[in-house]
Every structure is written in C-alpha cells, then in structure tokens.
Design a protein that fits this description.
The protein is of the alpha/beta class. The protein has 12 helices and 8 strands. Strands 1-2-6-4-5-3 form a 6-stranded mixed β-sheet, sandwiched between helices. A two-stranded antiparallel ribbon has the order 7-8. It starts with a strand and ends with a helix.
C-alpha cells in the first residue's frame, strides 16, 4: 500500500479532494456511486475495455471513498470497474479520496465531462443534482466547472422537456440544439409530433428550428381564428418575437463573416423564457481599417432589420 501525504487534510480552495492513498480493493467491496451522472454504458464499449484490461491490465486506477468496515463507495471509474468485473478480476487498484457527498458528486460529474462520456441530458441532470441536493448555486457551479453561468442555465432548461421526450431524443442521433428548438413549444403532444418529424426526415438544426417557427405561427393563428383567449400574447408581440429571431440570425451571420476575414471573435448566446442574451468579444489588436470595415458591414446588416420592420 502506497500513501500520499496530505498533512493538512484540506482541499485546495475551489478544488477537489486531495488523494490520500493508493491501494488494492476487492471489487465486491466497492458500492456504486449514487451520484453517477452517466446512465448508459454500451455493452460494446465495455467489452472492448474488458479485453484491453485482460491484455495489458488496468492503466488508470479508479477513485473511491471509505465507508464503514471493508466497504468503499465508487467516486469515478464506473466503466473501468464494470469492465474489471466482466474480465473476472477480483481486486482493483483504487485511489482513496477524503470526499464527502458533495465532493463525490462533483468529481463524478467532472470526470465524465472531461472524458466526454455524458449526453447533454446526463450533463443537465448532473448539474441539477449538484444544485438541488448539494446546495450549489448556478454561479458557483459554473465557476467550479469552468463554464459560464448562462451555459449552466441553458443545460438546466433542457430538463423542462418531459422524460418521454428526453428519452426519445437520447435514443436518436439528434443534437442538443434540436432539443432546444422543442423548448419553444409548450404542448407536449405537439413536441412529440415535431420530434418524430425531426427524426424521420433527418432534419438539420436549421430545418428543425424553421419547422418549430412555422408551427408556432400556425398554433397562434388557429387559436386566434377560434377566438380563444390568447392572454398577453398579441400580434404585435408575435411580430416582435419574429423580429428578435431575425436580429439574432443577423448577429450570427456577422460573427461568421468576421471570422472569415480573420477576426478572432468570440460569440456566445443563451436563451431564457424572457429574453435572448448575446455576448460578442472582439480583440482590439485588429487593424483600424479592417475593424472599421467589419463594424460598418455589421451596422448595415442590423440597420436593415429596422428598415424592413419600421
């Protein structure tokens, strides 16, 4: 048994538990991590890992925390542990961490994200768990994960889709942006119909967004024609919503054009129920003439929207 000294037994500020021990543990003494964000473990990839472990052994130890008696709880390394069990291995190398529940949940999520093993829904559920069961704020979670707060908020919004819709999306090859498009529809039955069209017609994100937009306009027109109560939704508001989408698309095109001519531009957008938020960061070191041309082109495009809608 090899011990890594940690005299202070404290964590780095804003960091994660410091390893204290590397040891060999019987696999039947390791209990699953209740905070494991990953839900799907494909048999084929597990079998490949199992064969690799049989041939060359386990290269990277798993991470665990000590429980009572001979038992440990897994923190990170679920695939490695499962593959070792498949290979008939009775003992496994493990790093023992002085982790509490919050640390265990955080490390499990970070490890999976770094390995790109999580689907966007699994990532969202991991964030939800850390916020609702372990007291993280969105701001603190974003800082610990190295993400923007808007990125965390956008992931959490995906959980507004019903479990059935999320499951169907997870089974398909559709992207997170397809899922975001469905969030604009608040009727689950309509969402289901649109989703099936996304899948059967192998729709791109742009085509899916356009279908959602047309569906929204039709739903509004049908409700208006039937004389149903539209609440606070007025035609003028609907036009403003369409205008905002047009403006957003213009921002996207401007950012793309600026990249084409060599500008190292950073573009990020997020959405909530009430508004769109766009962040554009442009370095100051570009030549004055080139920057002026880009700004003029961007201004002309944006002003054109006002001319069409005025």
């Amino acid at each position: 048994m090899f011990t890594i000294k940690n005299p202070s037994n404290s964590y780095p500020q804003g960091g994660y538990p410091t390893p204290t021990m590397l040891t060999s543990i019987p696999v039947n003494c390791i209990l699953p991590n209740p905070y494991q964000p990953r839900k799907v473990f494909p048999d084929e990839s597990l079998q490949d890992l199992c064969e690799s472990i049989r041939q060359v052994g386990l290269i990277q130890p798993i991470s665990v925390r000590k429980l009572g008696g001979p038992y440990y709880e897994l923190i990170a390394g679920e695939r490695r542990l499962r593959a070792c069990r498949m290979a008939g291995i009775r003992r496994i190398d493990a790093i023992v961490l002085p982790a509490n529940d919050q640390d265990s949940a955080m490390v499990a999520l970070v490890e999976n994200l770094q390995r790109e093993n999580l689907s966007f829904f699994e990532e969202a559920e991991g964030y939800y768990n850390l916020i609702n069961e372990h007291g993280f704020t969105q701001e603190e979670l974003a800082r610990r994960m190295g993400k923007t707060q808007s990125a965390v908020a956008n992931k959490l919004r995906l959980l507004k889709l019903s479990p059935a819709i999320r499951r169907r999306l997870a089974e398909s090859t559709l992207s997170e942006r397809h899922a975001r498009a469905l969030l604009r529809i608040h009727d689950e039955k309509v969402q289901e119909k649109l989703l099936e069209q996304f899948i059967s017609r192998d729709m791109t994100v742009r085509a899916a967004e356009e279908l959602v937009e047309m569906t929204l306009q039709k739903l509004y027109a049908d409700r208006s024609q039937r004389g149903e109560d539209l609440g606070n939704v007025k035609p003028r508001v609907k036009r403003a919503m369409r205008d905002s989408r047009l403006l957003l698309n213009t921002f996207r095109r401007v950012a793309k054009d600026m990249r084409v001519v060599g500008a190292n531009i950073q573009y990020e957008e997020s959405a909530s129920e009430e508004f769109w938020e766009v962040h554009i960061r442009i370095p100051k070191n570009r030549g004055e003439k080139g920057a002026q041309q880009l700004a003029t082109g961007a201004g002309n495009k944006i002003m054109a929207i006002g001319g069409h809608n005025g």
